[in-house]
Design a protein that fits this description.
The structure is a single chain. The chain has helices at about 40-45, 65-70, 90-95, 105-110, 125-140, 155-165, 180-190, 210-220, and strands at about 1-10, 10-20, 25-30, 50-55, 60, 75, 145-150, 175-180, 190-195, 200-205, 220-225, 230-235. It is of the alpha/beta class. The protein has two domains: about 1-210, Rossmann fold (3-Layer(aba) Sandwich), CATH 3.40.50.300; about 210-240, no CATH class. It has a six-stranded mixed sheet, sandwiched between helices. A four-stranded antiparallel sheet has the order 2-1-4-5, with helices on one face. A two-stranded antiparallel sheet has the order 11-12. The longest helix is centred in the middle third of the chain and has 15 residues, at about 125-140. The radius of gyration is 18 Å and the shape is globular.
Length: about 240
Amino acid sequence: MKVHASFAYGDRKVLDNVQFEARRGELLAIIGPNGAGKSTLLKCIAGVLKPEGKVIVDGVDVTPMKPMERACFVSYVPQSSLPEFNFTVEEFVEMGTYFTRGDTKNALRRVGMWNRRKESILELSGGEYQLVLVARALAQGGRVLLLDEPTSHLDVNHALRIMELVRGLKEDKIVVAVLHDLNLALRYADRILILVSGRKVWEGMNEELTPDILERVYGVRMEFVNGSLGRAVVASPDMPNL
């Protein structure tokens, strides 16, 4: 997938000529401070917002497509919100297949929720509901999977479960995730893109990311520590003189 996008709300520019590529076989994490334009970028790719530019998936420009056409190319998991209606898990996931006639059963099996398909989504925990949101996107069958902060408000157990699931999807799909947790990005992403004030300020492989880059982005001292689970970032409460 090749993305070249700008977007503005009236006179306020939110994305300024953001360009990048995302490929199958790798998980691309988008990070950056609050208000950087991360969620807006995903909405532009998904077609929720209409950007200036192009989104090319497997050689096809999906930007001008109608929702029914675009649904075959791009699946989108927004930031989690509380369910409002008493659908069963299966009914909720089937909504993702409306345009594409996707596979609800396989999607629920993949996230480990098939045996609970007849339960109400109102009875699920936050982590379980997030799994169902991912299942709905998988049932849609898009070639690109976009996830906007898929671990927000989840405990450590469910956050890791979601990220393990997401990492396992990258061989079949182009996977792009906005992540708030830097340590999850370091642990699971193959490549990282950093946005600041609507502009791409850095892009590279996970192992190329350095503490000084993060210091410039977030305005606090950073250092990496190595443990049995890999690299982790530690932030100091002392503000540097930037």
